[in-house]
Every structure is written in structure tokens, then in C-alpha cells.
Design brief:
alpha/beta; Rossmann fold; 334 residues; 7-stranded mixed β-sheet; elongated
């Protein structure tokens, strides 16, 4: 069995706000697995600032070769990766159990295989990507571990006052945005929340209340969701975004967060391995034309009751994923 000694975290140095949810996953995993967080922010930030000597040694794969023959770890560290790393480092070496979040088809598979061929297990959060990589028959021991909802986010919001009607945070899907604009023209009294980047800073606005201010933390965005009736959500890899992802369309945390905040969900997403795995169709209406969008939005706006997604959310809590991880480590190395 693999003995985990801790979880590498980079929270001790300044990171973009989208790392906030990763840090919450780390907290839940550390709690459930009873292991410490190991702060490695400074070392992580220096990975992509190598000295000339290190650049040369990286090109020669010196560190992988050295680890292959002279490094026999007896303890291992969990490490979340927003995307596959570009170079071999302490954060991806032989004694690390990596969890890869974003992975697009443009990824260099040869480099990916080179970096992770020594690892005991490499977890992929996207079911679609996991199946794709299995078909490529890489020399990597792959497994699937889906994204999750931090347990602390699964709170009772049944009595939460809903001030706003519609909100679309983050990714803007062309199809969904066109439906929304048409709906707002037809129903101008709708209180719609949207974001605008002004002087490099993200600010939120309401079509009824005007400027809402600057939102720079994950909690601030979640509080907005809790005050809104309907969350408009979409998968990456659709429309023009297909070029960026190569067509991969994973479930994003926004689907889980919107459900946890008690929003009705209206979205645009594919029927693929990821969305079927999560059972997103249980909580989110998938609209394909304006009339269906209009009908479901009007229905939800008239409903005064907060939807109950508890059974769905319970299946996807971070504590459940931590238990899955523990079981998978036992299965791989019993």
C-alpha cells in the first residue's frame, strides 16, 4: 500500500483566485486522510525560473534518469495540478501522486508520458480525458478521480433570500449568451448579473441595480450565487472554445457550486462521459434553442421554492472523493 505523507500546497505564495477551490479540496483530503499540508509555494514558483544549468539538465532528462535508478521513495505526496506540468520537478517526481485537472488535446503526449512514466499512479479528473488517454496506451499508470464539491459548501440555503434573477459567472458560451440577450430584450425587468473587466479588474453589474463592485475571492462569487435564482452554466470546449480544448468538455466546479448554492441550473453542455458520470442532467436543464430556454427560465423564475439537490450533491462531496482515493490506492497496491 502507498503511504501518503502529506499534500503539497502552494497557498503560501500568491496564486490566481481560481486556485481557491483547489485549496479547499486539499483541506478536505487532508482532513479525511489525516495527513498534513506541505507548503511548497516558493519552490513551485521557482520551477519555471530555472537556472541555465537546470535548463540543460532538464533537456537531457537528467532528473528523470537519476530518479529512475537512484530514487526509491517509501512515502508519497499528493499534488493537484491545474494542468499537466511542462517540466519534471519535485512537484511531479516519482514520490508524487498527481491529480491532473485541466487537460486539452493540444497537450504534448510524449512530454506528458516522459514526466509521469515513473509515478505509481496519475489521477485524471475528467472521465472523457481519462478514456482518451487510455486509448493512447501511454506508459503511465492512469486512474480516474473526478472533481468534487468541498463539504463546507454543502450548506442549507433553503431560506436564502433571492435578490437576483439570472447570473452567468465565468465562461461565456456564445449560444447561451445569445439566448440571454434575447430574453432580456423580451423581459427587460429581469435582474441579470454579469461581469465586465475594467482596467484589468473584474467587476460585477446588475441590469437593475447597476455596479455591484469588485469580486476578487471565491467566497464573494459563491455569495452572489446564493442570492440568485438561476445560474446559467456551460461546458468548456463548445463553440469557438473547441479550438482551445480540442473538443474536450469536462464538468466544471461551477455546476456543483451553483447546485450547492440553491440555484436552478440552465445550461448548454454535451452528452459525454463526464456529464453522464456526474449525472448533470438530474440538476441542469440542457437547452438547445431559445424557446426552450425561455420556457424553462420563466418556469424557474415563477417558482418560489429553492430546489433540493442534496442527493446529487452528496455523491460528489470532496470527502467522498478522498475515500475513493484511499480505496484506489489500496486497489493499485494491495
Amino acid at each position: 500500500m502507498i503511504e501518503l505523507a502529506g499534500i503539497y500546497t502552494i497557498r503560501d505564495t500568491k496564486q490566481p483566485f481560481y486556485w481557491d477551490v483547489v485549496f479547499r479540496w486539499e483541506d478536505e483530503f487532508a482532513r479525511m486522510l489525516n495527513i498534513p499540508l506541505i507548503h511548497v509555494g516558493k519552490e513551485y514558483d521557482n520551477i519555471y525560473k530555472p537556472s541555465l544549468t537546470r535548463k540543460i539538465l532538464n533537456r537531457a532528462n537528467f532528473y528523470q534518469l537519476s530518479d529512475r535508478y537512484f530514487f526509491a521513495p517509501d512515502r508519497y505526496y499528493l499534488a493537484f495540478h491545474i494542468g499537466p506540468p511542462g517540466v519534471y520537478s519535485f512537484h511531479s517526481r516519482k514520490n508524487v501522486i498527481p491529480i491532473i485537472i485541466d487537460f486539452w488535446k493540444s497537450e504534448n503526449l510524449k512530454r506528458f508520458e516522459s514526466i509521469f512514466s515513473l509515478n505509481k499512479i496519475v489521477f485524471i479528473t475528467s472521465r472523457e480525458v481519462y478514456n482518451y488517454l487510455l486509448d493512447k496506451k501511454l506508459d503511465i499508470n492512469l486512474d480516474h478521480l473526478a472533481l468534487s464539491l468541498p463539504d463546507g459548501a454543502a450548506v442549507d440555503v433553503s431560506n436564502q433570500k433571492r435578490i437576483f434573477d439570472l447570473i452567468q459567472l465565468g465562461r461565456q458560451n456564445q449560444q447561451l449568451t445569445s439566448y440571454t440577450k434575447r430574453f432580456l430584450n423580451e423581459f427587460p425587468e429581469t435582474n441579470y448579473i454579469y461581469a465586465e473587466k475594467i482596467d484589468g479588474r473584474m467587476k460585477m453589474f446588475s441590469t437593475r441595480d447597476g455596479a455591484l463592485g469588485e469580486f476578487t475571492t471565491h467566497d464573494a462569487f459563491l455569495n452572489l450565487l446564493k442570492q440568485t435564482k438561476i445560474s446559467l452554466v456551460s461546458a468548456p470546449g463548445l463553440d469557438d472554445d473547441a479550438q482551445r480544448t480540442g473538443g474536450f468538455s469536462p464538468v466544471t466546479p461551477r455546476f456543483l457550486e451553483s447546485a450547492a448554492c440553491g440555484c436552478y441550473l440552465v445550461g448548454v453542455y454535451p452528452d459525454n462521459d463526464d456529464f453522464r458520470y456526474f449525472g448533470i442532467n438530474e440538476v441542469c436543464a440542457n437547452v438547445t434553442d431559445y424557446n426552450s430556454f425561455k420556457t424553462i427560465v420563466l418556469q424557474y423564475l415563477q417558482n418560489q421554492k429553492t430546489p433540493d439537490y442534496s442527493s446529487f450533491l452528496q455523491r460528489h462531496l470532496s470527502s467522498k472523493r478522498a475515500t475513493e482515493l484511499k480505496e484506489k490506492l489500496l486497489q493499485h497496491h494491495a
